[in-house]
Amino acid sequence: MLTDAQVESWLVEDLGHHDVTNQVPGETTGRLVAKEAGVVAGLDAAERVFDYLDIGFETLVVDGERVDGGDSVFRVEGPAREILRGERVAVNVVGHASGVATRTRQAVDAAREVSDTVRIACTRKTTPGLRGIEKRAVVAGGGDTHRLDLSHMVMVKDNHVAEMGLEGAVDHFRERVSFTTKVEVEVERPDDAPRAAEAGADVVLLDNLPPEAVERGVEALPEGVLAEASGGITLADVPAYASTGVDVISMGSLTHSAPALDFSFRTGGV
């Protein structure tokens, strides 16, 4: 949930010290219009911005809904000055979030061409301060949030293994968390996948491996241990990884490289 302080910081960042262009008298209406097809997200953040400015807000679609160019997404009504003050912030956040949702939906659709069960997930490679918005956008696109932060799951990475050994690292962290907390172990060779499972991993992350190596790692895992593929996976790579038998494909590009969806904000009933 966005706080007043966050919204105010966005508005102050955009307004600067002084702006004469929003000194417009009277009341008006406005609407956000999609300029291209995509999946909408970020509407709750846009509503929060306009609520902060005491502007009436009406959603015309919902997060996760596909729109075409020319479709209206939300409508606002109130003092023209305040609407113009919040316009760019709202357009930016919806455009960014919708870009994430659209890229996620593309990845999910690509995976479904090959597998009905594999999940598309994002990572922690999110924009500072925008993780909640970006993670919700991934969900709107049909993806999975993965862990929201470091506290939600133990992930044993290469540096942990280098310091404590694979088995030692798993034991070390397992002793320090609740039995309800899952432990994921990152491996960089398919032969290490069963070793990680034997050490007690609930999830094995096959990192930076080509699809054929991921498939070998998946085949070596015992039943009940989830397999995740990650590491520079692009939209074009999704079908190949979805065919390996992994349970999860995680993609940092969903949040750090998705192009914004293009929108136009129009006032005065246009």
From TrEMBL:
One of its GO terms (biological process) is purine-containing compound metabolic process. The keyword Transmembrane helix does not apply. It is an enzyme of class 2 (transferase). Pathway: Cofactor biosynthesis; NAD(+) biosynthesis; nicotinate D-ribonucleotide from quinolinate: step 1/1. InterPro entries: Aldolase_TIM, NadC, NadC/ModD, Nicotinate_pribotase-like_C, Quinolinate_PRibosylTase_N_sf, Quinolinate_PRibosylTrfase_C, Quinolinate_PRibosylTrfase_N. Its EC number is 2.4.2.19. It catalyses: nicotinate beta-D-ribonucleotide + CO2 + diphosphate = quinolinate + 5-phospho-alpha-D-ribose 1-diphosphate + 2 H(+). Involved in the catabolism of quinolinic acid (QA). NCBIfam families: nadC. This is Nicotinate-nucleotide pyrophosphorylase [carboxylating].
